Hints:
2 domains, globular, Aminoglycoside 3'-phosphotransferase, Chain: A, domain 2, Phosphorylase Kinase, domain 1, 407 residues, binds 5-S-methyl-5-thio-alpha-D-ribofuranose, five-stranded antiparallel beta sheet, binds magnesium ion, alpha+beta
Amino acid sequence: LDAPYELLTPETAPAYVRSRPALHEHIDGGDIRSVREIGDGNLNLVFILADGAGRGLVLKQALPYVRLVGPSWPLGPDRARHEAESLRLHGRLAPGLVARLHDYDPDRYVLAIEDLSDHRVWRTALNDGLRHDGAAEAMGRYVAAVAFGTSVLGMDAAARAATLASSVNPELCLITEDLVFTEPYVDAGRNSVLPANEGDAAELAADRTMVDAMGRAKWTFMTRAEALVHGDLHTGSVMVRAADGEQGPVDSAKAFDPEFAFYGPVAFDLGALWGNYVIAAARATALGDDERAAWALGLCARTWDAFEAEFRRLWTDGRVDPRMFGDDLREHLLGTWRSEAWLFGAAKMTRRIVGLAKTTDIETLPPELREGAARGVLRTARRWVREREVDSAPRRAEEVAGELLGE
Ligand code: SR1
Ligand code: MG
């Protein structure tokens, strides 16, 4: 494809590094020993480079189309700027919880990011049956720092308005609006399920309560500019590193890949995490590991509790304008977000079963196990949109999911 800017290749990546002075303190461009393309996401090129001293660097370049589909689905590369700007801002607000950006090249839409090859992508670690305790809490703190620090609570009005203006991200938001909120219920020709799950998908689309709830969720997503949210905070957007060995308590957990960042509802990021914890639990249930499924579901409350505690701490430490933003507002926000986490969680888990972009948690199961796992996730989503009205305690969300995944 003819891109309007030069695309990186393994052969050209070293010269690219040499051409970027900001990278010279991170890697020796004259002594690059290896370059590998490691992109496994849906949109971009990703290279990892190492020099003779063992130092590494990641180069990520936006392709002018959706990689998952190919050049027939063009996509503007401005998402790279959104990713760079949100990595910088989120990194300042949540130090240590966000992948570090070394450089951004606006002419070729290339980000240079710290090498995290001593970490693992959390989703693949989950798929391998590993536990990284503390990662769910770290992501709760990250969401809280962003919720507070990019909203009117933590930013003065003029700075927030300017940040909001430069964060308008219509192309990527449209992908979410279509793939997450609409297409699981109104097939645009991009959905797919196993033949054995076709009845489940049809029941889902015919479930008026679910469709109405997703209509509300979509409205909230499109209209509620609360904070500069990550926008795609699934377990594949988190890197984790165990302090000792391949699993156990983490000494590092970092969000990355915020190209979908925009001013939106805080609970969208919480729901993304919750929905993907349910998917991880569905995999464990399918593999007959109920204890692990319970552990995975328990991540919902771990993330929520850490989020709430950090948000309360930031609130107390100092909001920009406490004159009208009192404790009543704080409790209202927390109650709203807690309930909306169920709603967005339901949306996020459903789209990964029925819609275009699926997850390896489910897709790498043998087909005879995928059927039940997919059904359990869809049933959980449909129950979540109902049960959140009754009692929105995060532990209830876990219980409801546990009952339905095990059926
Ligand atoms: C067409 S892009 C499909 C999905 O990949 C990203 O991870 C987002 O979740 C998006 O919806
Ligand atoms: Mg991504």
